[in-house]
Write a structure and sequence with these properties.
globular, 0% strand, mainly alpha
């Protein structure tokens, strides 16, 4: 009964706090969202950003409020700082809500403020756009021209997420990719296993073969294979297959590492690895023997496409 007494700041602070705490009380959130839908004009920019970001963290999708926000926000984005704009786009991706008008307006704002954006703002924005399959060429071109000169400011996850996003969006700019790849070999020790796998996989999606970075990855990764997930290992090998990049020692060490862990690999991981090895004309007898055993006992898990990839490999 106290809900009508909450002002806009109390509403936004409450939703934001619930998001940070991962506390999802649906009836209460429903009431807050109902109340907010007709009061957005009362909200300050920070309050709107905190509200949608909190809902995004909770994956709480309220159609009425989302519709109201997408109508209300484009004309107010100039009031938002870089973080508010980035958080809004990122929240929409968490909610899997693609409103092209709002996203385009946010991209225009971000493109105009590249110098004042932190690396996290840029990385989160383009990654969110990729999850929503919303490609905004003007922003992508802007980031591609801006990022190489500031790459030392970008954390490994921000670099890998940006590259991965460009891969998902099929945004290829050779000068950008070459500049970034030239700077990464000496930083691989900073990258965790997921960062490395996503970076390499992005190059595969973009069909961009940078010999120096790929060689550095092959020299660096074997000592850390135990830290890679099956998906990460499969994605790296899959990319090498796509790019026809063969590094014999890396392939030997990876193929020696995989057999004891093969029960961890799902059917897609296995079929991707075999297909990649086939493209690279590399035949590790022990791994292939164990793969055949795994397939024979797990045949029901394999889809037709997976079996075709295995047979092709």
């Amino acid at each position: 009964e106290n809900m009508p007494l909450l002002n806009e700041q109390e509403v936004s602070n409450t939703i934001y706090a619930f998001g940070l705490l991962a506390y999802r009380q649906e009836d209460f959130l429903e009431a807050l969202c109902e109340q907010s839908s007709s009061r957005l004009v009362e909200f300050k920019a920070q309050g709107i950003s905190n509200t949608i970001y909190g809902l995004g963290l909770l994956r709480f999708k309220h159609p009425q409020l989302l519709e109201a926000l997408c109508v209300h926000l484009p004309s107010r984005l100039e009031e938002f700082g870089p973080q508010g704009t980035a958080n809004t786009v990122y929240a929409l991706s968490l909610l899997r809500h693609c409103n092209e008008t709002l996203l385009d307006a946010a991209c225009v704002q971000t493109r105009a403020r590249l110098q004042s954006c932190l690396p996290q703002h840029l990385s989160n924005t383009v990654y969110a756009l990729a999850l929503l399959q919303h490609r905004h060429d003007e922003l992508c071109i802007g980031i591609a021209g801006h990022m190489p000169g500031r790459l030392q400011e970008f954390k490994p996850q921000e670099i890998s997420n940006t590259l991965y996003a460009f891969g998902l969006l099929a945004f290829v700019q050779d000068a950008f990719l070459h500049s970034v790849c030239e700077q990464l070999p000496h930083r691989l020790a900073e990258f965790n296993e997921q960062n490395i796998a996503n970076t390499v996989y992005a190059l595969g999606l973009l069909a961009f073969k940078h010999e120096g970075l790929l060689h550095a990855v092959c020299e660096h990764v074997p000592q850390r294979l135990a830290g890679f997930t099956p998906q990460g290992i499969a994605n790296i090998l899959h990319t090498f297959g796509l790019l026809y990049y063969r590094h014999t020692r890396f392939l030997q060490e990876t193929c020696s590492h995989v057999p004891p862990r093969l029960p961890e690999f799902n059917e897609q991981n296995i079929s991707s690895i075999v297909y990649a090895l086939g493209r690279l004309n590399f035949q590790p007898s022990k791994l292939l023997h164990v793969v055949c055993q795994q397939i024979s006992t797990r045949i029901a898990e394999f889809k037709a496409q997976g079996l075709l990839s295995v047979a092709s490999g």
